[in-house]
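Hi R.,

Here's the chain you asked about this morning:
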Amino acid sequence: MPSAAVDPARNPARDFERLRAANINPVTGLATDYLNHYNEVAMMISSLSAAPDMAETVLDWRPLGYAAHFRITRFRERELAIAAYEAAPDNVKVRFFSARREVDLAIAEVQDLIEAQPKAAGRLSERAPQIFAAIARLGSVINGEAGSA
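And the predicted structure, written out as tokens:
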């Protein structure tokens, strides 16, 4: 009989089939749904040249930790997502935190520039490709792709 640490009945964060069905990577324990938080603000930043009034919304955006994101989301398996994250391997978490920090800093830089020069907000849409690339790197970590972050 398997131990409680690996028994899927006792530890749903190790139930690979349930994780797959919930769109949670069973190897990393992470879900790409987390990227939605970043994609929303990246899309707002990319539209600043056409809609500079989005600058206030970009300024209001704040990073959310993984578990915090799932606590407020409508993700069907949010409790499973949090449990799987908490059980994620340490090496995955290190790469995840590093990649997440890169995205957070890129967005914070845009926010700082908007605050410093509000009239120049429209020109900041040129920063969006860098932010989307950082989000893609975070997605690579979530998906367990080799060489990510």
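The two ends are 37 Å apart (CA to CA).

Let me know if you need anything else.
M.
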